[in-house]
Write a structure and sequence with these properties.
Strand content: 15-25%
Strand order of the largest sheet: 3-2-4-5-7-6
Helix content: 25-40%
Oligomer: single chain
Structural class: alpha/beta
Distance between the termini: 43 Å
Shape: globular
CATH superfamily of the largest domain: Thiamin diphosphate (ThDP)-binding fold, Pyr/PP domains
């Protein structure tokens, strides 16, 4: 069930919302109180933030609010925590910071949320309206700066507008294609000492919110004719593949997807943003496609005669050289965002709509048309795909005695020793790809990463946000040493707030993915990628931040240390795993090459060459 609020599910339907009742005198309220009350009425239970001058009047009513505020150590951390919370729960994450440098510090999380369609509400303080445009202290054009990285942003200039603007923000962030919405709040309209901050409280109705957004009417139901065309095309296909993107998770469509796949035994690939949308251990699951996808997933798409693209956007990391991508395939493309249809690859059957609703409609038509009995026999295709799976499994060479750990082994042990519904939150780089490859995702919303923007430093704060949103679940941050150094200070937040997140640092002393490219494509000219295995001392650093910390250097220490970490539930835990810097991520489609030129393993001198 979709956990996000929608118009029609009005939390303000009773007098408990603080709005006036018939015959009662209107309630006078100031902008700061109104902002916090509005967040409460939208179901906000947590704000990730950091106070400062311009936003200070809003922080005072938080003392009287049931909303939990988590004090971050850097505004970027607040944004990524809000993202992690949203990924894990399906509800919009809320971040609140002050003006100027605080607002610019949260631009990266906004861009990240925008790229990955994450519902997020960002409240930024702003200088008083009379000071706008005067280069006042800590003034920045926040709306101008963030316009290209938000679904919607707005400078609120009247206190009386705050309830409506908050309602609009949550509606926009959580409907259609989800995304971040920013409200920039000048100090004078929330300052209780300013007469302009006071107004008569009114909570807008659903109808008023709809009327205030006349141009925003997302299409959720697929066109019946296009749905029927899609069903007929699926039944006629000889080599179909379900190409599943993150939009399936955003639409809460995992169950519908499984019904569709199982009805006709169609193989499924799940992109980096869709891991967990279809169980990895299901016989129809081929795993992740793309630059570092497994051979079978990449090859199946290349040889397919029909790609059923659900909530996916034909990203360059999936297609490789576009002109050579899936040359024989017709395309059915389902997306809530009409701008995605035809943007990269033209679709034979484009369908605008909510993935869950469209999949259900296609299922109904397939059954009406005869279901599996009316479908083309794809037994030979399934057999071919199974042959690729047997011939090209993911593999690596285990370390010899005395050698550094293999990162793949560490991830396999983490996977096998952690609960099945563990939430895994990765940073960006080699460790991200290994985590996606070697973890077995059986449930939706158990994999969180920065897919589109590729934000180093994402993992630790996003994991904290996920743990706040899902406190009863084990949450592992899988990070690289380079990523960890960017936002590690947020472990102080986790320790202070008693958020028992767990962090696995794969320390190979390098910016690993950059090193891999320099080794493969720059004749081993390693330019500015070496960090250090010992500086900083990750164990001492983690302990100084209030965490329990371990260092693991040999294979026999891996499992016992993970077990210890999983038993600790009253504070954050950090494990530094010393890993082999020479290990590279394979398979790999070299940048600019077609997917047919996939390199399967480290021992491959040339591309394997996909079998015709």
């Amino acid at each position: 069930m979709d956990p996000t609020p929608h118009l029609g599910d009005d939390p303000a339907a009773t007098p408990a919302d603080g709005s006036s009742t018939v015959g009662a005198a209107p309630e006078r309220i100031n902008g700061g109180q109104a902002l916090i009350r509005s967040l409460e009425l939208e179901g906000t239970d947590t704000i990730f933030g950091l106070p400062g001058g311009a936003i200070l009047p809003v922080y005072d009513p938080i003392l009287d609010s049931p909303i939990r505020h988590i004090l971050v150590r850097h505004e970027q951390g607040a944004g990524h925590m809000a993202e992690g919370y949203a990924h894990a729960t399906g509800r919009p994450g809320v971040a609140m910071v002050t003006s100027g440098p605080a607002a610019t510090n949260i631009v990266t999380p906004l861009a990240d949320a925008y790229m990955d369609s994450v519902p997020m509400i960002c409240i930024t303080g702003q200088v008083a309206t009379a000071s706008l445009g005067t280069d006042a202290f800590q003034e920045a054009d926040t709306v101008g700066i963030t316009r290209s990285v938000t679904k919607h942003n707005e400078l609120v200039t009247s206190a009386a507008d705050i309830p409506l603007k908050v309602r609009q923000a949550f509606h926009l962030a959580t409907t259609g294609r989800p995304g971040p919405v920013l409200l920039d709040i000048p100090k004078d309209i929330v300052d209780p000492n300013n007469p302009d901050a006071w107004f008569d409280w009114v909570w807008p109705t659903d109808d008023e919110v709809r009327a205030s957004l006349p141009g925003y009417r997302p299409t959720t139901t697929g066109h019946p004719r296009k749905v029927r065309e899609a069903a007929e095309m699926i039944l006629a296909a000889e080599r179909p593949v379900l190409y599943v993107g993150g939009g399936v998770l955003k639409a809460r469509a995992a169950e519908s997807l499984r019904e569709l796949a199982e009805l006709l035994d169609i193989p499924v690939v799940t992109t980096l943003m869709a891991r967990g949308a279809f169980p990895d251990d299901h016989p129809l699951c081929l795993g992740m496609p793309g630059m570092h996808g497994n051979y079978t997933a990449v090859t199946a798409m290349q040889r397919s005669d029909l790609l059923i693209a659900l909530g996916s956007r034909f990203d360059d990391r999936v297609t490789g050289k576009l002109a050579e991508f899936a040359p024989l395939a017709k395309v059915i493309h389902v997306d809530i965002d009409p701008a995605e249809l035809g943007k990269v690859r033209n679709a034979n059957v484009p369908i605008v709509g909510d993935c869950r609703q469209v999949i259900d409609a296609i299922l109904a038509d397939l059954i009406h048309l005869g279901g599996a009995d009316a479908a083309t026999d794809i037994t030979a295709w399934r057999s071919t795909v199974s042959g690729w799976q047997e011939k090209y499994p993911l593999a690596y060479d285990q370390s010899e005695p005395g050698e550094l750990l293999k990162p793949q082994y560490v991830l396999e042990q983490l996977r096998d020793l952690s609960p099945e519904d563990t939430i895994v939150v990765s940073g960006v780089g080699q460790h991200q790809m290994w985590a996606s490859q070697f973890w077995t995702f059986r449930h939706p919303y158990t994999w969180i990463n920065s897919g589109g923007l590729g934000t180093m430093g994402f993992s630790v704060p996003a994991a904290i946000g996920a743990k706040v949103g899902m406190p009863d679940r084990t949450v592992w941050s899988v990070d690289g040493d380079g990523c960890f150094q960017m936002t590690a200070q947020e472990l102080v937040t986790a320790a202070t707030e008693r958020i028992p997140v767990k962090v696995a640092i794969l320390n190979n002393a390098y910016l690993g993915m950059v090193r891999q490219w320099q080794e493969m494509f720059y004749e081993e000219r390693y330019s500015e990628v070496y960090l250090s295995p010992d500086l900083p001392d990750y164990v001492k650093w983690a302990e100084a931040m209030g965490c329990v910390a371990f260092r693991v250097e040999s294979p026999e220490e891996v499992a016992p240390t993970i077990r210890k970490a999983n038993e600790i539930d009253d504070r954050p835990v950090v494990i530094e795993f010393r890993t082999d810097s020479s290990e590279k991520v394979f398979p790999m489609v070299p940048s600019g090459k077609g997917n047919d030129e996939i390199v399967v393993s480290q021992d491959s001198d040339e591309a394997e060459g996909i079998t015709q």
